[in-house]
Structure formats: structure tokens, C-alpha cells
Amino acid sequence: MINSFTKTHVKFLEHTAIKQAIEINRWKLDNSSASNLPHVTESMEADLLDCFETNKILLSTLGFPLFEPISRVTVTTKNEGIFMIKSKEIVADGNLIDDGFVVFKGSEAKLNTTPSCHKYLIDLRIFFARESVIVQSNNCYQFVEDYVFSSPSTAGGVILGCATNGWTKWRNSEGKTLDEVRRKSV
Fold it and tell me: Locate the DUF4357 domain: which residues (predicted)?
């Protein structure tokens, strides 16, 4: 089938890929303007969607889950549960995934940073506020979408407004740290 692709088939696949990436909202796209959905026959559409699904699975298997949505259900494994950071002002929850640490929509972050907070954390918080990843809600920020951080420590630092060791700050409902559950049990 690959040798029989025409420009129309490629445009159909491009349109499908961009549309699904926008719906999932896991990645920021440089090209978010797909061409209009071209007309293909019903049988060809079925073949192209099958091809798209095969590529989607292949990409995920290779470590590039471009079209896989993040949800509490898919990242919560059997006995670990969700990991949380709690303080007097905020509660945030998330989990470790293959490509980083996801903080879930609805999680809260402290409104202010500490005087010793690293500049890169302050810059990240400013960027998130500007891009509406977090919005001010009462006396804290709130995540309006799931967000994947490069590490648990960066996620914890953004949430707490100070440098932190995310491996020891994130805890499950039993009080076990991310370090105890994921590193020491291996």
C-alpha cells in the first residue's frame, strides 16, 4: 500500500495526525494548520486510518507517544496510586510516566516563590501563566491541563515555588515517597 500513496493520501494522513494531536493536547504543535480533509473513498479511508493506527502504535512502542492522551487511568499503576504534594496552601497530584512526570489538571501550585528559588523555576512559572497552563485561582495557581515535566523535581519545584527533591516530596496515599516506590523497590 505504501508504494501506492498519492498526495491526497498523504494530506489525509497529515490532516488526521494534526487533528488528533490538537484534540489530545499533549504536545505543542509548530504546524497546527492542516489542510482541509481531502476526499477519499470509504475503503481508502479505512485503509488510511488503519495505517495511521499502526504508525501510532509503532511510535508509542519506540518511546514517542505522540497520539496517546495522558490520563489518571493510564498512568496509575496497580499498587502505587497517584503521588501527591500537599502543603497548607495547595494539593497537587501526578505520576511518573515514560517521558517524565505528569502533573494532573486541577493540581494547585503556590502563588509565590521563595527568595532562594532558582531562576529557571521562576521562568517556568511565568511561562506557564502566560501560556495558560496555570491560572490564578483564589490564593494559588491551578493547572488547567495535564502537563508533563522533565522530572519529578522540576514538577515539585514549580508547584512549591522553590527548589525541591521531587523523589522525596511526591508521596502516595500510603505516605511512601516516589523514591521508595519506584527506585528502592526495583
Answer: 131-178
